[in-house]
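Q: Got a minute? One more chain.
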Amino acid sequence: MAGNGEDGEWPVTGGGFLEVACDESGSDGENLTGGNTDVFAHASVRLPVESAAGHVREIRDRIRSPAEEYKANHLLREKHRAVLEWLLAPTGPIHGNARVHLIEKAYFVVDRAVGLLLGDAGAALGLYRAGRRDFGEEPWREFLAAANQLLRVRNDGAAQEPVEGFFRAVRALRCADGRADVAGTLKLLAAARPLADSYRARLLDGPPLIPVLNPLLPAIVNTAALWSAGGQSVCLVHDRQNMLTPERVAWIGETARRAGVGFGGLRLVHSRLDPRVQLADFLAGIARKLASDELNGRGDPALTALLRPYVDPASVWGDERSWAVLGRTPDQEGSPVR
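A: Always. Here it is, folded:
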């Protein structure tokens, strides 16, 4: 099979838009701090349909599993490591033509909570990194869970319990032996009760069109921004998702256009009917697992190095140690033009 395809014909729609196929891995709804996964990955692939179909056939030929539908876990098995390395390698079929936007879920929760209550998402990174280091495992875990409960739409308990629980957790952090340089952020959070009450009151009127805790929608906007950064407008082809209602797709388009992104629309397909989406599904699942392993201190250096060229520099990631090996800056070789 051909490798990078840098001189090939890219899929372009009748309107002149670059067509990019997408899929995700790691969706746990709004349960970002207590779900099955700690990383969300949104992958995108830019290849002609015929080339993608050939690559999918080659993966099947190399793995030779009787499964009707292949998933990322087929490639992640140790006995198929050679196939995984071939797929991600610089000489492999998707190198230079695929990207993955990573979201560290716990940091995403802190980022959204601080952004909502303080209007200053920049303060989230300092708080998050201090929390992981300095506040103690139990107080920090309780704060993350409380922030998740505050922001999520669903509430199974008393109406005010998400607010009460969050501010109890903030008080506990303020009493913990944390670093002084985040004391100001905690003080501001402690004074933000009226904003939290107002947010929960709005939820009583019905679920919002764009849930604060859903990572998929901003990830799609980011994907469109990444591929259109060189000046080419992009049309996304995405695996079907219940979250992607016509109203939310319209929000994605409007948000992208307000940000200056050349966005030509989003078309939903079944992954089994589009080999490009199948490749995006493989990459999303692989990236989620490898990034999670790195986050938890059990990463495989060789596989992490192979993943690194695919990682979107605009990924939402708070952990400093793991990002040092996972992340890239825009000016590094192999990065998309931004």
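A: The mean pLDDT is 89.
Q: Perfect, thanks.
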